[in-house]
Amino acid sequence: MSGRAAPVYNRGKYWLEWDERADGTRRSPYLTIFWYDPDARRIRSSSTSTDVEDEAIIALDRRYLADASEGPAFCPTCGHPTAQAKSYLLTDAIADYNLEWGRTRTSADTIEGRLKHVVDFLEAEDAKGEEARFGLGTTCAIACGTVFATALRAWSRTQPVLFRNGKKEVTGSRPRSPASTEASIAQLIAVLNHAANAEPPRSDKRPIYKPLPAQQVQRKRRTRIGVAELAAMLRYAAEPGKQRGSLHAFLVASICTVARPGAVVDINVAPERLQWWPGAEAIDLNPQGRTQTKKHRAILPVLPLLGEWLQAELDDYLALPIEQRPGRGFLVNYHGRGVQDVDRAWDTMLRNLQFPIGREWRSYVLRHSLATLARNRGATLWDLEGFMGHRASSQTEVYAIGEFPTAKAALQSIISEIETLAPGSLHRNDTGASSPNAERRGVKMSG
C-alpha cells in the first residue's frame, strides 16, 4: 500500500485506494479496501474486484454497513443499537439510502442525480472555509432542520442544470426550475426518513420541513401540438431509407396509449412480461415485476393500429433463437435492443422540421397534446382520467378492466386524420399497408 496520496474514499475505519508497491506499481488491477485490525495489529485488505470507483465505493459501503462495530446504528463499546442523528453524517445517510433503496429502483438515475445536487451543496459550503454554515461534516440532526433546507433552496436557485454527453462533458445548460430544487428536497427528506426507519434506526430525528406543493413550483405547460404537427412528425419518422425506427415506434405507441414517455419505451411483447399477447384486447403498461408508483401505469384497450405493431414485433421476437431473446421484444428499440429514451432522435426531428426547441417541446408534449385533442373530440373526463392513469383504481377496477369508449373513439379519429394527412406513415413498414402478420395466429401466453 502506498500511503503517498489521499484515499479515493473512506468511511469509518475503512479506506479505499489502489494497492501499490513502494515503487508505485500496482499489485492488483482492482481497487482495494483497507482497514486496521487491532487484534492482529496490522493493516488488512480486501479486493473490490473492480477498477471502477463508483462500484468500489459501493463495495466499501456494504462492508461498512455489515460491520456492527462501525455502523452508526450500534454502540462501538457495548454493541447495543443506538440512533443519534447528531453523529450520523448526512453524506453517510445518502450513501446508505442509495445502496439499500435508491439503486434498486427503476428511477435510480433520477434519484442519484437529485441527491448529487445535495452533495454538491455540501461541497460548495465546504469551499467557503470559515464562512461555511454546513459542509461534508453536516449531520442528519442539522439536515433535519428548516435552516438547512432554506440554505439549500437558496443555493439551488443559483445553480444551472447542466447537460453532459457520454464522456461527462458539459454540452449545455438551462436555469434550474423551482420544481427541480423541490425534487432534491423531497429526495433529501426520503433519505432522512430512511435513516430513522432503518432496523435498528440510525437516526433519532426526522425532517421538520416538507417540499413546496407542486402547484406552487411547477410551471404549467402551455404548448400543445395539433394533428398537422403529429402528421409531419410521423411522415418524417417513417421516411424510407432512414434509421428512425425507434422514433417511429415511439410516436405511434404514444398516440395509441397517451402514455408517459417512460412507459412507452417500456412496452415489450416478451411473454414473461405479461403486458400483451396475440388476441389480447388490452395491454398492461406496467410490466410483470414492476411496482406501481404514483405515476400509475394503466391497463388500456389495444387500438387496432397498436395491435398491428405489437404483432409485428412479436413475430420478430419469436423468429429469434431462444438464447437471443433475453433483452429483446421492446416495441421501441434500436437494432432490437430497448432504449432509455428517444431524446436525441426527438431533438434531431425538431430541428429538421424547424419546430421550436425547448422545454415545452420535449417528448412529453405528445401526452399533453393528445389528451387535449381527445378531450376536445368528445372523450369524457372519466374515460380520459382512466386512460391516462390519473384516476386512482378502485377495487372494482381490479376485476373489471375499463374500455374507455369515448377516449378510444377520439384517438381513432385522430389516427384517421393523420392517415389522411400523411398516408402510410402510421404503419410499421414503408408501403403504408397493414402488417401482413396482423391477423396471423400467434402463440398463447402461458400464465
Automatic annotation (TrEMBL):
Keywords: DNA recombination. Residues 438-447 have a biased composition (Basic and acidic residues). Residues 425-447 are annotated as: Disordered. InterPro entries: DNA_brk_join_enz (IPR011010), Integrase-like_cat_sf (IPR013762), Integrase_catalytic (IPR002104). The keyword ATP-binding does not apply. Residues 220-416 form the Tyr recombinase domain. This is Integrase.
